[in-house]
Design goal:
The complex is a heterodimer. Chain A contains no helices and eleven strands. By secondary structure, chain A is mainly β. Chain B is globular and about 45 Å long. The chains are: A mainly beta, B mainly beta.
Chain lengths: ~120, ~110
């Protein structure tokens, strides 16, 4: 049973380019969360998605960032016109149910974005 | 503002020692708290989850406690081993939300 799969693991982009990060949740999981870990900071919530729905994107920067979780295929976090401050580790997590006190969420290995 | 503070930020100990890692949080209305392990360049592995109605959880050499009234959780590691070297993160979920609030972690190094 594969865990949460993220790719690419490492991505280098020049300023102004686009970055696309993909996340396949664990089998049977329909809830996906994206978190960002800036250097020397804790993980910060970005967005919560279910299939074809964005439930909460309150942690997403207002511009250049978007996320989707289509009916088929992985969840995608898209960053347009990247800037150096976007350099971070982006973690995807999934759960079988949503809001549940006893529910463990499972994290992927992360995608490390470096903007040069 | 909801915050999580982890003390110490870094810790280096000889093998075999018993360790206590501390986590304090500002919101007493937590729904659950999790301790995670993060290895360099890797994702997060959930170690222990404590629901708000529980006071502690144990798994092998790990024991985590939760005191909501004082806003504290501790992770106790017994008989530490070099393989325990990693960053340990605590995160809590507030009632009515699904956003975990993470601390910045304690970087542990266990020397052989």
């Amino acid at each position: 049973n594969a865990g949460v799969m993220q790719n690419p693991r490492h991505l280098v982009r020049r300023r102004g380019q686009e970055a696309r990060l993909r996340c396949s949740p664990m089998k049977g999981h329909s809830h996906v969360y994206w978190y960002r870990q800036l250097p020397e900071e804790g993980l910060k919530f970005m967005v919560y998605l279910q299939k074809e729905n964005i439930i909460d994107e309150s942690g997403m920067p207002k511009e250049r960032f978007s996320a989707e979780f289509p009916k088929e295929g992985p969840s995608i976090l898209r960053i347009q016109q990247v800037v150096r401050g976007d350099s971070a580790a982006y973690f995807c997590a999934s759960s079988s149910t949503g809001f549940d006190a006893g529910n463990t969420i499972y994290f992927g290995e992360g995608s490390w974005l470096t903007v040069v | 503002k909801q915050e999580v503070t982890q003390i110490p930020a870094a810790l280096s100990v000889p093998e075999g020692e018993n360790l206590v890692l501390n986590c304090s949080f500002t919101d007493s209305a937590i729904y659950n708290l999790q301790w995670f392990r993060q290895d360099p360049g890797k994702g997060l592995t959930s170690l222990l989850l404590i629901q708000s109605s529980q006071r502690e959880q144990t798994s092998g050499r790990l024991n985590a406690s939760l005191d909501k009234s004082s806003g504290r959780s501790t992770l106790y590691i017994a008989a530490s081993q070099p393989g325990d070297s990693a960053t340990y993160l605590c995160a809590f979920l507030t009632s009515g939300t699904y956003k975990y609030i993470f601390g910045t972690g304690t970087r542990l190094k266990v020397l052989a």
